[in-house]
Amino acid sequence: xxxxxxxxxxxxxxxxxxxxxxxxxxxxxxxxxxxxxxxxxxxxxxxxxxxxxxxxxxxxxxxxxxxxxxxxxxxxxxxxxxxxxxxxxxxxxxxxxxxxxxxxxxxxxxxxxxxxxxxxxxxxxxxxxxxxxxxxxxxxxxxxxxxxxxxxxxxxxxxxxxxxxxxxxxxxxxxxxxxxxxxxxxxxxxxxxx
Length: 194
Description:
Blueprint: H1 2-16, H2 21-38, H3 45-62, H4 66-69, H5 85-99, H6 103-123, H7 128-145, H8 153-162, H9 176-187
Helix pairs in contact: 1-2, 2-3, 5-6, 5-7, 6-9, 7-8, 8-9
């Protein structure tokens, strides 16, 4: 990343003195800004949103497709062999949204799935360890394929709490009220039972 910066910097200054600066130079400057911001590893959702928006702008100018950046090293279809069918089909839509670059949709789907899981567990209609397996699969998929907290800090916290669901109702188990709050925050609602 820094090598690209060093190579592009002299070219950017050279372009300042040419009449073609606004054609080529603006792309180089935008590339430099993108390279610098993408090198920042932060758990802040604001920094991540800025990085994503900048990539979209850069992509629009250079015909670079953002969804290519979101392609995983291991496609989600490969994880079907590592999970039961019911767990796989619950997480598949979220993984596909991530692969398409629809991060906000993936966050919302995770939040709605969490609220549904918790409702079903509280009614006694879903065994907590089955829900835990879904969070575990999503966590493994994200760790294998994407650096940092691609879904943001709140979503990562929610996934972590979800991986504790096999201890539901026990002292070392997840904080269900906190999970509902995180899901509510991801949805942008104040009513966690939504």
